[in-house]
Amino acid sequence: AYQNAWNLWWTARALVSLHNPFFSPLLYYPDGVDLFWQTLGLSQGILALPVTLTLGPVAAVNWIVLTSFIIGGYATFLLARHVTGNTAAALVAGVTFVCSPYHMEKVIDGNLEVAAIHWLPLYALALLRLLERPSWQRALAAGVLLVWVSLGSWYYGLFVLLYTGCAAAIWAYGVFRDSGVHRLRRSIAQMAWGLAPLAVWTLVLAPALYGLIGRTDETIWDMRQLQRERAADLIDIFLPNPVHPWWGPAVRAWRDQIYPDAVIWNVALGWVALSLGLLGVFAAWRKTWRWGVLALACLILALGPELKIAGWNTGLPLPYALIQ
Known about the structure:
Layout: H1 2-16, E1 23-24, E2 33-34, H2 42-47, H3 49-55, H4 57-84, H5 87-98, H6 101-109, H7 112-115, H8 119-132, H9 136-152, H10 154-178, H11 183-204, H12 206-211, H13 224-230, H14 234-237, H15 248-258, H16 271-283, H17 285-302, E3 306-309, E4 312-317, H18 320-323
Antiparallel strand pairs: 1-2, 3-4
Helix pairs in contact: 1-4, 3-4, 4-5, 4-8, 8-9, 9-10, 9-11, 10-11, 10-17, 16-17
């Protein structure tokens, strides 16, 4: 939490003094340090700038936490209302998203870069609008939001890259399935439009990405073994709320027996979200099959390179191994 408070303070100081916020001379003095690939959270720093300057960085941390509920919930409301056309259902969706066990634990941990879930539903809405009615304006808007998500949290930025690829492929298949003549050409065009935000992301971040090429030091670790060890267990997704005051301690004690060395592991969506999502998919499959397949694809990717079930490493390779 205090590291994140420093991040907000440094971002405000750098922006006000017209310095590059991605480089701080205050750390590793006198050489300074590059903060671009750190968990700086520039997007949150800009959002909290007035609070940081007037009330200080601790208040700014609290402000970001509050806005993660307000902006994240409202953005999810807009997304759900766009999909369903139902205001009441959209309200339920917004509350379910911001009160998920995953989000609540990140708030409790003070893990601000992942507690700041604001931008994820905003990007999902921008991408959906692009997939529904492709245009250069919508592709640019989605690309800018993709960069914004990434600068707020590299965790979410990389997750959303995978989400974008999955969504583009699924919507392209939908066009191929539903089209008559020229359906292959239309499907390829749909795929290209869906991937357009990735092109914007690559162009904007090209200098930073280029800087990673040819690095001979230990800046870039080989993360494959770490990913294999720390990927989500299948059972984690379906656990009851681990932060619930009644049954949360029992859930955590059971999980600790299986993975005693795990520190950050709660990826639970919550039974409310799972139940409503499954109900919606099965009750209106013709309209929701894309979302069902997209959710399944993202959950499979979250399981990492090998399938683990309740602590048992099955050795079964998963699609994430191809990304590795």
